[in-house]
Each structure stands twice: as structure tokens, then as C-alpha cells.
Specification:
The structure holds two protein chains of two kinds. Chain A is mainly alpha-helical. Chain A has 19 helices and two strands. The longest helix of chain A has about 35 residues. The chains are: A mainly alpha, B mainly alpha.
Chain lengths: ~450, ~500
């Protein structure tokens, strides 16, 4: 049973929260959730070396799945750990919040192990449905939260439909729903079918043109939920993409479409982010741009590309959550911070300002942060596979994105707020988390060897 | 190309790179502003002392890299932690370690807010600047090259003048735009040769098409850093708004990274493209010399004037480099050092005045001859040096550059001649207006001991390099020859 430990534990946690949600008040729920999610992270780390195939090969526990389970569990822990809203979440929808995010993480864990089309689809839906439920759970701004929830639901349903349609094609072409049995010859139709299947994943990744939900959903969701959606589901979706890419030959159609999506996603995301005033919308567009960067690793169809994309998504998780630290703590209320709320952050909380600065520099890709090393890996892999123009578009986009990321730093360090704003008090745990994020981001920028070796061993086919 | 082991029992280059960084981290641990100042001074002085063995043990007869340190860093991409210096980088490293304590001293009183963060940034700058000159791995080079952006940005954006916001942003965007193409070119080189290790990449014959694009990507990054006309517009803004120490670092070291890059990479990696595209660079250099000279004549702000004069001086550097003559190369190297010493000193002088009068306008700082005689003595010396008065350092450098330029193309070189004349005109105008004035001048405090202490080494350097440049020339000669051969061989 040890092979299923991370999934089983996460599912157990979900059930526990579900029971707790029936109680009127459950004190210390936040601390419990942080503790349990940390335990989940440790368990998935302990299970890193597990290998096996189950349910007739529909469910595979291999290097790829185990690495991504660790990342997902870590993301869940970080999101819970960041929680400032814990105390008031406990007044309102506390247990449900934890329950459904945990369930979503469980869905993602199943997703990264799924090796059969139906299992994959079920896992994808499981992770989406729990998010549909958790999105409207927001006391302040209920109408916006509802708007975000409905948008996510509609776009999600649409994407799922397209995915199913593509799966139908794949089944018709190969006569099997098992991934290894998809004997693909690299024909155009197969490429098209794969693209259709990928639509559901692109939706999760918020890759152009499946990105429309992202800004509204980020804006409508409560801040910790937005942090979760910004990071964790993208990790899961990337894992499935990698699994597909490892199995399929390079088809011309597939490559072309990926190329176009990647270029447009980077450019569109960055250009739109330039004009945002709402911090969360800005991060949503930044996420769209980063989905485009990730495609640089997918498109090369090589081991280096797969490792690069995984490396980058790990760094992305850390840096985007670092930026979300600021989103969470900037306002006394639980509203959506605008860029102007960043003014004077340096005085209000030097540590938070520094965390945001390091995350922002890493999101641009400036050394010595992890974002730089990730981009170097991605650029190298795509360049090696011959996509010079895509690399140049990526490089131009890096310069383009500098403006709005630097603006975050500029506002928090060089601008004074209009009124007098109080100090932001971080708890000791949040302080440790901030320091940890900074340390990890810089560590991944300077010493990539350990993680790269690990990923290389786990992902190489 | 030759790599020579480190004769010292410790990692000499790693030490001088990371000592300032450890000082910076230590500053963060301690509270108190005075402690931060003292600690920054101690660490930068210690670094100066520790870099002296490099000078004494450096063998000028060797053209390869010396004091080499080579370790595995990231085998996944073949990255190495590789450091080494040759005759081109050693003088620049020495300039950096010399100016760092001076920058700490000149900020002693001028910086009153967030002192710890300021000193942290200064030491971080020192680390990355030395790192740039010592790196023998392209990715390591790029990390230092970019890593310096963040502290420099903060120096301008936090402690800068009224338009700091605009200036710092412009600085950052200009530099980063150049750098991303640098990164693409570096990756292209890696894919060509399968390594990021610079000595393995240098002096190989790549096909011309490849050279052309790599040269272009490099040249944009370096031209922005130098800055060459027409990429120079970030410089006056950044200089005017930066605090004194920031201006000194910017003028004296950061700009040199551009010309260093031209020499090391455009000559070493893409000699054929450098040959073919040299006329463009030469014309842009001449335009910069003349155009910036005229701009200087009209400036009211002292810092702005010196900033534009930097553009002209750096024009001499690129002109010397792309003359492809030994004279020109030597002159360019000398000009890099001279500009570092003289312009750095001029910025220090303006900083000293600004601390007293709180204005950088020439009109507000006139009539100093009576009240600040010591200051005027130093200021006069540096102004004279700046326009290349015989007996000062710039004279030698400009002479060499002109010799090289004339040797290459007489007609082209004639166009440079107005440059030094313009320099004399604007520097003397500045000097005249600051020293003399009709009527009484309100009393100002003359130089304090601290200020004399940090101006004196630079004054000594100005005269020493003016009269006896042979020592420094001897250090770099064999390395310069190597690069010159590379370019000539590609003809």
C-alpha cells in the first residue's frame, strides 16, 4: 500500500476536514491543516522512490508521478502555511476551504499518475470540480467571487468537453484508452487529436487561448484560493503534458500549434500585464506569460526540455507564491490589493517587501534567482531543438515583462503611501516561510545541480 | 589558450569576490548605522589589501589567464565555476577594489537613511563587479553582469535625487534589454561548442554568418553599457540622480564592463565580424566624442556635464579598440583606467560640493576659489586631467588612441581632433565658473580629512599614470597582443 501513501493521506485529510466542517466551530483548524499538509509533503517525499503499475496499467507510480506529487503536496502546504485568512476562515467557510483545496490536490496527485485516458479525465475533473466549489466561498465581494466561480466553471466545462472530444479521436485511432497503447505514427490527425486533449490541460495552465478565465478568477477568488490556483493546478497539468510528450512522436501540426500558443501566450500575457492596476490580475497575466515560457520545454520533445520545464514549474511555484505573500498581507481587510497599496511596503514590512522583490526579480529571470536558471535551461533546450525564433520571442518578452515586475519593486521601495499605514505584522511562521521562499529561490538560481539530477533521474525515459 | 594555476595557497580570486559579499551579509546581521559604515570600510579595505598579492604575483609575460580556479558547478549544462585574470582584467579588478573603499568613505556622511541597506548594496556591487572581470564561464559572467543591476538599481531608486524613479527605471530597462540578447548569444555559443567555458570558446574560427549575429547581440549589450551613441541617453539621467557613490561606481566600473566586453568577446569570439563592422563602431565613437562635447558646453548641472563627458571619453575607448592597432588598444585600456580614476574623482568632487551647497548647478557653486582652496586644488587637477592636459593620465591615453586612429585611417582620425579641444573648452568653462565669481562668496567648509583621504589616492594615480604609464602598460601588453593577433589573423 505504500505506493499510494501520498494520495491516501491527502484523501484522508479531505475526509477529516469534511467531518470537521459539520461542526459549528473547530478551533485551531488552520494549524491542523498546516501540520497535516506538511505531513503530506513529508510522506510524498518519503515515497519518492516508489515504483509500480496498478489497475491494469491505468495507474502508474513512476519517477515523474512521484516528483510531481511532492511538488503538489509542497504547494498545498505553502498555500495553507501562508494563510493569514485562517482566523476568519474559521468563522466562515474554514473547513470547506481546506477540504476542497485538499481534494483538488488529491485530484492532481491522481492526475499525475494516470496513464489511461478515462482515469486521466476523471482526475482532471476531480481537481477542477473541487475548485468550482471553493471559488465562490468568499464573504467579501460575493458577486465577484460568484462571477469568478461561474467563469471558471463554464470555461472548465468547455475545456473538458474539447478534451473528451479529442480523447474520442485518440481512442478511434488506436483502439485503446491506455497511453502506451496509443501507437502514434505522427500523422496530422493524431496531432490534432492530441491538441484537443491538451485543451483541458492548457485550460489548467492558463495558456493562450484558454486563459480568459484567469484574470477574473484570480480577482474573484479569495486570496489564498487564488494563490492555490496560480500555482498548484499548473504543476499537475504540466506533468500530464510531459507524460504525453514522452509517448508521442513530434508531429508537425502539434509542434506548430504549440509554437504559436507559446509565442502568443508569452506576448499576450506580458502585454496585458503592463496595464493592470489590480495586483492579482497582474499576477494572472504573469501566469499566462509563464505558461508560454513553460511550453519552450515541452516543444523540444527531449529529456532536457522535460527537465527544464519541470525545473521551471518548481521555481514558478515558489516565486509566484512569494508574490502572493504580499497579496495576502498587504491589506488589513481581505479585499483585493491594487498596485497602489504596495506603496511604502518597505517601511511597513521590510521582509515582505524583500520577498516580493526577490520573487519579482525571479519572475523576470534576473540572476542570481531561480527564474534565471530556469529560463536558461528552457532557452537552451528550445534552442537546441532548433526553435531559435521562439527563444528570441521569449527573450524579448523577458525584457518586456521587466517593466511591470520592476514596478512592483519600485512601488514597494521607492514610493510613499498617501496616508499613514500601519506596520504589517507577520507571524513567526509566516516570517520563516518568507525567509524560506527567498532562500529557495536564490538557491535554485545558484545551485541547480541537485534538483536537476533528481529530475533528470526521475524524468528521463 | 594558456591557463595558469593559482600560485597562492588560497583561492585568491574567490576571496576577493566573496569577501565583500560576506561583509554585506554581516552588515545585515548587526544593527546600528555606525557599525554598518565601519564594517563596510573594513571589508573594502581588506579586499584592497588582499588583491595586492595578485598584482605582485601576476606574471606580465604570460598572455593567458592566471590565478585560475576551476570547479564543477552544474554538470547538467556543463557549467563551471571558473575564475581567472589576465592583463586586461587585472587592472580593472584593481581599479574596482581601489574605488570601493573610496565609495564607502564618500558616503560616510552623505547617506543618512537606510545606511545598512546602502552599505549592503555597495558591497554587493563590489562583489559582482569583480566577478564580471574574473569570470571564465559565460553563465557565471552573466550572473555577475546582471546581478549588479539590482543593487545599482536600488542605489539610484532609493537614495537618488528627485527624478530617481525615472532614472532608475530607464537604467534598468536599457541594461536588461541589452542583456537578454547577450543571453541568447551565449546560448548560441554553447550549442555551437558545447561549453560555456570562455577559454574554450575564444579564438575559434566560427563561420561569418554566425559571427555576425553573435557580434550583433554582444555589441548591443556592450554598446548600451559603454554607452555608445545613440544608446547613451540613460547615462545622464542615471548619473544625475544617483548618489555620489553610485555615480562613481557607474562611471568608473560599470561603463568599463561594456568596453571590456568588446575587447574580450567581440575580439576574441567574433574577430571577423568585428573587422567588418568596425567602421560603424568607429563612426559612432567619433559622433559620440564630438556630439557629447557640444552637449557638455551647454550644461548647467555639473553632474550632467561630467556624465556627458563620460560619453565622449568612452568614445575614445571604443575608437581605440576598433582601430585594431597596438597603440589604439593600449590607449583604450589606459583610457578605461583613466576615465575610472578621473571621472570617479570628479563625481566625488561634485558630491563634496553637493553636501555643502545642496545644489549641483554650476551657478550655485561659483566663487569657490576663495573659500575652498584645497578643494579647488584637487578639483582643478581632475578637470585638467579630464581634458587630457600633458602630465596627467588622460593625455597619455588620448595620445595613444589618436596614434592608433591615425595609423588606421588618417581622414577618419582628423574628425576626432575637435574632441579634445571641446573637452578643454567645457572643462575650463566649468572650472572658471566654479572658482571665480564677482562679489562675496558665502563661507563654506573646506575639505575635511576624510575627504582629502579619499581624493588623494586618485590624485596620485592621475599624476603617476600621467608620467609613468609604463608599469600599467607592461601588465597588459602581452594579453593585448594576443587579442590583436586574433583580430588581425581574421583579416
Amino acid at each position: 500500500m505504500r505506493e499510494f501513501l501520498p494520495e491516501a493521506f491527502t484523501l484522508g485529510c479531505f475526509l477529516l476536514y469534511l467531518v470537521l466542517s459539520m461542526k459549528k466551530r473547530s478551533p485551531r483548524l488552520g494549524a491542523l491543516a498546516v501540520g497535516l499538509s506538511f505531513l503530506g509533503f513529508l510522506l510524498s517525499l518519503w515515497d519518492l522512490g516508489q515504483r509500480g503499475e496498478f489497475f491494469n496499467g491505468a495507474y502508474r507510480v513512476d519517477g515523474l508521478s512521484q516528483v510531481f506529487k511532492v511538488i503538489i503536496a509542497l504547494g498545498l502546504f505553502l498555500v495553507f502555511g501562508m494563510g493569514k485568512e485562517r482566523e476568519d476562515a474559521e468563522r466562515g467557510y474554514g473547513a470547506e476551504f481546506y477540504a476542497f483545496l485538499t481534494l483538488s490536490a488529491f485530484g492532481l496527485m491522481v492526475l499525475v499518475s494516470a496513464c489511461e485516458l478515462l482515469t486521466l479525465f476523471l482526475a482532471l475533473e476531480l481537481s477542477s470540480y473541487s475548485l468550482y466549489l471553493v471559488l465562490p466561498l468568499r464573504r467579501e465581494m460575493p458577486s465577484q467571487a460568484l462571477e469568478g466561480g461561474v467563469k471558471y466553471l463554464l470555461f472548465g466545462a468547455m475545456a473538458s468537453g474539447i478534451t473528451l472530444y479529442g480523447m474520442g479521436y485518440l481512442y478511434a485511432l488506436s483502439g485503446s484508452t491506455r497511453l502506451e497503447a496509443l501507437v502514434l505514427q505522427g500523422e496530422a490527425l493524431e496531432g490534432l487529436a492530441l491538441i484537443l486533449v491538451f485543451c483541458g490541460l492548457f485550460f489548467k495552465l492558463s495558456l493562450f487561448p484558454f486563459h480568459f478565465w484567469a484574470p477574473d478568477v484570480y480577482q474573484g477568488a479569495s486570496n489564498p484560493t487564488a494563490a492555490f490556483i496560480a500555482g498548484v493546478p499548473k504543476v499537475g497539468a504540466l506533468a500530464v503534458l510531459l507524460r504525453f510528450v514522452a509517448l508521442t512522436p513530434e508531429t508537425e501540426v502539434l509542434i506548430r500549434i504549440l509554437w504559436v500558443f507559446s509565442a502568443l501566450s508569452m506576448t499576450f500575457g506580458n502585454l496585458s500585464a503592463l496595464v493592470q492596476r489590480d495586483l492579482k490580475r497582474l499576477l494572472a497575466y504573469s501566469g499566462i506569460a509563464h505558461a508560454g515560457y513553460l511550453m519552450l520545454g515541452i516543444i523540444s520533445f527531449e529529456d532536457l526540455g522535460r527537465v527544464s520545464a519541470t525545473y521551471y514549474v518548481i521555481v514558478y511555484l515558489f516565486m509566484t507564491l512569494g508574490a502572493f505573500m504580499a497579496v495576502l498581507f498587504l491589506l488589513d481587510s481581505r479585499g483585493n490589493p491594487s498596485l497602489d497599496d504596495l506603496r511604502g511596503l518597505y517601511r511597513r514590512s521590510p521582509l515582505l517587501a524583500f520577498t516580493l522583490a526577490v520573487s519579482a526579480f525571479s519572475l523576470v529571470g534576473i540572476p542570481p534567482t531561480g527564474g534565471f536558471m530556469g529560463k536558461l535551461l528552457l532557452f537552451t533546450s528550445a534552442f537546441k531543438a532548433g526553435y531559435l525564433y521562439l527563444v528570441i520571442i521569449g527573450a524579448v518578452n523577458t525584457a518586456l515583462s521587466l517593466f511591470y515586475y520592476l514596478n512592483l519593486v519600485r512601488l514597494s521601495y521607492c514610493r510613499e503611501p498617501e496616508g499613514v499605514l500601519g506596520e504589517i505584522r507577520l507571524g513567526p511562521f509566516q516570517k520563516a516561510l518568507c525567509l524560506g521562499l527567498i532562500a529557495v529561490i536564490i538557491y535554485l538560481g545558484l545551485f541547480p545541480t541537485v534538483l536537476e539530477r533528481l529530475l533528470g533521474a526521475a524524468l528521463t525515459t | 589558450m594558456g591557463l595558469f594555476e593559482n600560485p597562492l595557497p588560497y583561492d585568491a580570486l574567490s576571496t576577493i569576490i566573496f569577501l565583500p559579499l560576506s561583509g554585506a551579509l554581516l552588515i545585515l546581521l548587526f544593527r546600528g548605522e555606525r557599525a554598518a559604515r565601519v564594517m563596510a570600510l573594513i571589508f573594502s579595505l581588506a579586499n584592497l589589501a588582499l588583491s595586492l598579492p595578485l598584482l605582485f604575483l601576476f606574471d606580465p609575460s604570460l598572455s593567458g589567464f592566471q590565478f585560475v580556479e576551476l570547479r564543477e558547478w552544474f554538470p547538467g549544462l556543463g557549467l563551471k565555476y571558473a575564475l581567472g585574470i589576465d592583463g586586461i582584467s587585472l587592472p580593472l579588478v584593481l581599479l574596482t577594489v581601489l574605488l570601493s573603499p573610496i565609495c564607502v568613505l564618500c558616503s560616510w556622511r552623505a547617506i543618512e537613511q537606510r545606511v545598512r541597506a546602502f552599505m549592503f548594496c555597495l558591497l554587493l556591487m563590489e562583489t559582482s563587479m569583480i566577478g564580471v572581470f574574473c569570470s571564465l564561464d559565460f553563465v557565471l559572467f552573466y550572473i555577475f553582469w546582471e546581478g549588479m543591476l539590482i543593487p545599482m538599481y536600488l542605489l539610484i531608486a532609493i537614495w537618488g535625487g528627485p527624478r530617481k524613479d525615472y532614472a532608475s527605471l530607464k537604467f534598468f530597462i536599457y541594461t536588461l534589454v541589452g542583456s537578454v540578447f547577450l543571453l541568447v548569444a551565449i546560448v548560441a555559443l554553447y550549442l555551437k561548442q558545447g561549453t560555456f567555458f570562455i577559454p574554450d570558446l575564444l579564438f575559434k574560427s566560427y563561420d561569418y554568418r554566425f559571427q555576425f549575429w553573435v557580434f550583433l547581440a554582444f555589441a548591443i549589450a556592450f554598446a548600451i553599457k559603454v554607452p555608445m551613441f545613440p544608446f547613451h541617453t540613460w547615462l545622464p539621467a542615471a548619473h544625475v540622480e544617483a548618489p555620489t557613490a553610485g555615480s562613481v561606481f557607474l562611471a568608473s566600473i560599470l561603463l568599463k564592463m561594456g568596453s571590456y566586453g568588446f575587447l574580450r568577446f567581440c575580439f576574441g569570439l567574433t574577430p571577423e565580424a568585428a573587422q567588418k563592422l568596425a567602421p560603424i563602431i568607429v563612426i559612432l565613437s567619433i559622433v559620440a566624442i564630438i556630439y557629447a562635447g557640444f552637449l557638455c558646453l551647454g550644461q548647467q548641472d555639473m553632474k550632467r556635464l561630467i556624465a556627458y563627458s563620460s560619453v565622449a571619453h568612452m568614445g575614445f575607448v571604443t575608437l581605440g579598440l576598433f582601430s585594431f592597432k597596438l597603440w589604439g588598444l593600449k590607449g583604450a585600456m589606459l583610457q578605461m583606467l583613466n576615465h575610472g580614476v578621473t571621472t570617479g574623482a570628479l563625481f566625488l568632487c561634485v558630491g563634496i560640493l553637493y553636501e555643502r551647497t545642496h545644489s549641483r548647478l554650476i551657478a550655485d557653486n561659483s566663487g569657490l576659489g576663495k573659500v575652498m582652496p584645497w578643494f579647488v586644488a584637487f578639483f582643478g587637477l581632475f578637470c585638467f586631467s579630464s581634458f587630457g592636459f600633458p602630465g596627467t593620465n588622460n593625455f597619455v591615453g588620448e595620445l595613444f588612441v589618436l596614434l592608433g586612429a591615425f595609423e588606421t585611417n588618417k581622414v577618419m582620425a582628423l574628425f576626432v581632433i575637435p574632441g579634445p579641444i571641446l573637452a578643454a573648452a567645457y572643462m575650463l568653462r566649468l572650472l572658471k565658473r566654479t572658482i571665480w565669481k564677482d562679489g562675496e562668496t558665502s563661507p563654506l567648509e573646506d575639505l575635511t580629512l576624510r575627504e582629502v583621504l579619499y581624493l588623494l589616492p586618485l590624485a596620485v594615480a592621475v599624476i603617476w599614470m600621467g608620467f609613468a604609464p609604463r608599469g600599467i602598460l607592461g601588465l597588459m601588453e602581452s594579453s593585448l597582443r594576443l587579442y590583436l593577433e586574433a583580430v588581425k589573423g581574421a583579416m
